[in-house]
Amino acid sequence: MSTSSSQPGAASDALVEGSTKAAGDESLAPQKTRIMGRLSYLLAWFGGCVSIGTFAMGSSIVGTLNLLQASLAIAIGCFVIGVALTINGAAGYKYGIPFMVQARSAFGFTGTRLPGLVRAVPAVVWFGFQSWIGAGALNAVSSTLLGFDNLVFYFIAFQLLQIALSVFGFQGIKWLENIGSGFILASLLYMFISVINKYGDVIGAQLIDIDGTWGLPFWGATMLFLGIYSTMILNASDYSRELKHGAGPGFLTTLYAMSILPCTLFMGLIGLMVSGATGVADPIDVFANAVDNTPLLVTTLLFIAFAQVTTNVLNNVVPPTYVLMDVFKLKYRVAAVIVGLLAFATFPWELVKDDSATGLQIFVQTYSAFLGPIFAIMAVDYFLIRKRTLDLDALYDEQGPYRGTNPAALIATVLGVLVAFSVSAVSWYASLIPAGLSYYLLMRHWPACRRFLS
Hints:
The protein is mainly alpha-helical. It has 22 helices and no strands. The radius of gyration is 22 Å and the shape is globular.
């Protein structure tokens, strides 16, 4: 069983301990025991990347792109995600370290609070938000089939279920995602075919026959679909440390892209087609009102509920849990329960109100501006500054060279964020070079950063 420590030597000791890993036995120490093979890892990403927001992203490009352009925009976005996940997950895959430990080499022990908060706070908010959506879907099924209507009851029960699943760690995630992937794929195929059958003529006239554009709006669309997963790019090492060795960068890029592409493509196109055919921006509303087709209604609602579980447990529990483990030195199970309870405190029933939409959008835009710069800094740090070689003992020594905060990382982050806010349409892309280049130059030429070059 692996253990976590901040003392020199703990990293190398952890690498030779034990060969088994019990459910919920997660730690920040370098991980030797890896529980996911290639197929299992692919299915985990497939099941964990079902974001209901993808429907809305598809709806948002109605009238801008035709069906071919939309499909290519989604494919390009997924490929970029695959490359970025491979890049930022390389340290975790090689050394078995999580995101919060990896970030110490660039930001320092204290400085990691910034990327930690940027990843953890949105995750907790979305955990609560998506749980409320999932509970609403279950309540709608219950009301339709059983006549029992109690949203509060289903929200509490749904959240407690997810907390219970979370404490099993990656052992639980592995089986949940692997088993759930089949249901998710079948549901998406059924929904996709149903939409084509119902709105086929309108889709042809309004989405296939229009010219669309290959200009900036097209590249902005690629970032829309990329942006949904940009938070996961930051903590890619939390997942890659679970994958068994033997996969090269090219294979990993393909694995990531192909696991994310099917769900993103189906959901994005469903959102595009339904919204283009009906004029209703939220395709969920269209399905929910399809009372003349009860099987489609129930299948869609159950899909929505199940998708929240697979997405939350993988993407919205693990990151803040590791942050709590790092900051407060908590055990994994305790931290996972706290994250689940914190999701109640986000008051998701307020976030879903129409008058909350503007505030929620500002919140998303604000934290999203940090994602590109932090990714660029971590990538430059690992590949160009460290040459893919990390001193693990130093990364676990709070009084070592990485103590405190690296000023170069903070300055580079600020520069990248300013660029991101000034070029909002392609903010993630635009922020990469300013943040990465400034970080590299500061690390190479600023004496205050010399300690962090150790």
